[in-house]
Each structure stands twice: as C-alpha cells, then as structure tokens.
Amino acid sequence: MTDNPFVLRCDTVGVTTLTLNRPEARNALSLGMLKALSAELHRAATDSSVRVVVLTGAGPAFCAGHDLKEIRTENFGVAYAETLFAECTKVMLAIVSLPKPVIAQVHGVATAAGCQLVASCDLAVAADDARFATPGVNIGLFCSTPMVALSRNVGRKAAMRMLFTGDLIDADTAIRFGLINEVAPAAELASRTAALALKIATKSPLTLAIGKEAFYRQAELPLADAYQYAAEVMLTNLSKRDAREGIDAFVEKRGPVWSGQ
C-alpha cells in the first residue's frame, strides 16, 4: 500500500484499489482530492501490472460529492470554480479513457459528484445499504456535471427523477435504473467486488483495452457508423497475438497464455 494524503493505493495481483481518504468529510471531492485521484489514475493507466482498478472510499461513505465547505470558503470565486470543475471533468474522463476496467465499490452514500463517479466507472458493486442521489437541486445548484455521466447510464425518466427531486435512491432502485451492476450484503461487498475484479483480470489486457475504448466510441455514433467502426476494431483485434492465442487455446481445449500483444 502506498500512502497519499487524499488517496490510498493498494496493489494485489492484477488489481489496484484506490481508496478516497477523507473519511471525516465523507470523502468529499476537494480540489486536492481530485488532483490526487487524477495522479493515481494516470499511474494505473501506465502501469502494465495493473489489469483492473477498484475505486472505493474510506470511512462511512463512498463519496458525498464536492466539498461545499471548501467551495464556500473560496467565496464562489469564478477562477476557483473553473479550476475545480475542470479537474473534476479531468478525473471523470480519465476513468472512461483508462485502458483498464474501473469498478466502483460503493458503500454508504454516493451523492452529487460521488454519484457521478459511480456512473463514470465501467462497473459498480454496491452494498445493500448504499444510497445514491443528485441532490444539488435542494441547495439551488443543479447537478449539471453529474447529469452528464448519470444520463449516459440510466434511462431519461430515471435520470430526470433523480435530478429534479434530489431524492436518495436505494441500491435495489439503483440496480433497476442501471446505475450499478450488483448489490451485495455489506459484509460481502469487498469480497464480491474482488471476485469480479479478479475474474476480469484473467482476460487479455490488450483485448480489454481495445474493447473498452470501442464501447465508449461506438456509443456516440449513429447506428451504421457504429457497425462500420466496430468491424474495423474487430479486424484490428483479430490481428493481435492475444486473439490468435485465445482462438488456438479454445480449439485446443486449454487455458490461454496472454502476452498483452
């Protein structure tokens, strides 16, 4: 484990866990926290030993969103706000562009930008007592940036309900909305997330990187363009050593040995 004032990193075989580390503030995303998380995501992206990233929070909550006390202390200065939201956008885009799957491991609350973090991750496992909300409307500050990730993960009516009411939803509702993949008993949250991460970590890292990039790119294309692009990706993927190894292993009824090439 490596220590950082705001983010803890723990490495196991193929899986890196990044833990938001402001438990006393329910892991609110201060500017320092966002910069630290951005740096750790960059490290994970460029570390060939990392196959999967798990994002979680220390203490009683996953993440309560932006640090409103810090925002108020800065007297709502435009320059500060621009820097804060630019850094937040940088983090969310880094998660999506990271060439490895990112799994949110959620307990307690994930609200506002914390809910945005969950929606930005590729997968999410939540404790059965987890709660989610985009409550900005309650304090006169609409959750406009969380809306971007939220609306790309759940249906419009579900997103609008969350954005317009600011109400907390439970884990069962979140899975029904499509915000998360799995609900686990709180005592089993870490083990269930680890099992999913380890399962994915056994796949070809090159194939995962190709597939993740393609998924997000095709989702923004018209249907015909998406198929054309996906076919090109398939051809590129087919030319790689790991694809040949995987096909040979399947035919020969043995486990594949990935080279990452």
Break the fold down into its secondary structure elements and pairings.
Layout: E1 7-12, E2 15-20, H1 31-46, E3 52-57, H2 68-73, H3 78-97, E4 102-106, E5 109-111, H4 113-120, E6 123-127, E7 131-133, H5 144-151, H6 156-165, E8 169-170, H7 171-177, E9 182-184, H8 189-201, H9 205-219, H10 223-238, H11 241-251
Helix pairs in contact: 1-3, 3-4, 4-5, 9-10
Keywords:
single chain; alpha/beta; 9 strands; 261 residues; 11 helices
What do these coordinates show?
There is one protein chain. By secondary structure, the chain is α/β, with parallel strands linked by helices. It is built from eleven helices and nine strands. It has a six-stranded mixed sheet with strand order 1-2-3-4-6-9, sandwiched between helices. It has a three-stranded mixed sheet with strand order 5-7-8. Strand 1 (7-12) and strand 2 (15-20) form a beta hairpin. Helix 1 packs parallel to helix 3, helix 4 (113-120) runs parallel beside helix 5 and helix 9 (205-219) packs antiparallel against helix 10 (223-238). The protein is globular. The protein starts with 6 loop residues before the first strand and ends in a 10-residue tail after the last helix.
> Main β-sheet, in a few words?
6 strands, mixed
Strand content: 5-15%
Termini separation comes to: 29 Å
- Per DSSP, the total helix count is 11
Radius of gyration: 19 Å
Mean pLDDT: 95
In one word, what is the shape? globular
Q: What's the total number of strands?
A: 9
Low-pLDDT segments:
none
The assigned structural class equals alpha/beta
